[in-house]
């Protein structure tokens, strides 16, 4: 949805900024039942280093890609500034909602004394919502012919998503929503770099560049500073 509206770079970076911001606020004020974690100078420095790492790992490689730059420039010229601002805000909101989800699920696991039940409830409610949306928008179910075109690994998305949800339910009460989100972001960026490096799952082969390695290193340093704060 966002990609053709605001371009590749902003589509990637704005939700990440929303996640980091909301995760930090959640910990600082103890929202959604999270344990309140004071904002210390070292914690603030760590968050800053992490953000710089995200920019270096995600934005710089895109800026050096001529195709990405041309696409983003074209999108920006075609959109009015007011429309762009609206989509940019929505990009941040998506990240905020993702952070809220992790914090809420983590607290639900604490209340139920069961991480698996909390993960199940979250997925069950989400499944109902998606089924309603799919029924309203598509008004059909996949055909047998369409299902036969899939491969076994195409069905791993739900398994991986459930595993991610389960891990966040476990981690949030232990290390806080902010740190859980930040560790997740590091994993996502490392995973995306590896997928592009080796061309896994039919993705376009794109060797890792120095900026990505440097950015990931800065993110790890930032998380280390936050953890020591």
Automatic annotation (TrEMBL):
A single Gene Ontology CC term: plasma membrane
Regions that span the bilayer: 12-32, 44-63, 84-104, 116-137, 153-171, 177-195, 207-226
Key words of the record: Membrane, Transmembrane, Transmembrane helix
Pfam families (alphabetical): DMT_YdcZ
Domain of life (superkingdom): Bacteria
Protein's UniProt name: DMT family transporter
């Amino acid at each position: 949805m966002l990609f053709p509206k605001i371009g590749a770079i902003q589509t990637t970076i704005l939700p990440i900024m929303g996640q980091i911001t909301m995760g930090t606020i959640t910990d600082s004020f103890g929202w959604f039942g999270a344990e309140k974690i004071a904002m210390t100078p070292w914690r603030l420095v760590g968050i800053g280093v992490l953000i710089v790492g995200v920019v270096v790992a995600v934005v710089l490689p895109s800026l050096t890609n001529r195709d990405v730059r041309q696409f983003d420039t074209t999108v920006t010229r075609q959109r009015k500034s007011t429309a762009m601002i609206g989509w940019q805000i929505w990009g941040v909101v998506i990240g905020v909602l993702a952070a809220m989800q992790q914090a809420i699920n983590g607290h639900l696991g604490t209340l139920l004394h069961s991480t698996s039940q909390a993960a199940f409830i979250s997925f069950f409610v989400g499944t109902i919502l998606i089924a309603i949306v799919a029924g309203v928008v598509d008004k059909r179910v996949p055909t047998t012919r369409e299902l036969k075109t899939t491969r076994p690994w195409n069905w791993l998305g739900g398994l991986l998503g459930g595993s991610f949800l389960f891990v966040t339910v476990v981690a949030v009460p232990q290390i806080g929503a902010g740190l859980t989100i930040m560790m997740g972001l590091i994993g996502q960026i490392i995973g995306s770099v590896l997928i592009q490096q080796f061309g896994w799952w039919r993705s376009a082969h794109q060797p890792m560049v120095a900026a990505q390695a440097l950015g990931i290193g800065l993110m790890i340093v930032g998380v280390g500073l936050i953890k020591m704060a």
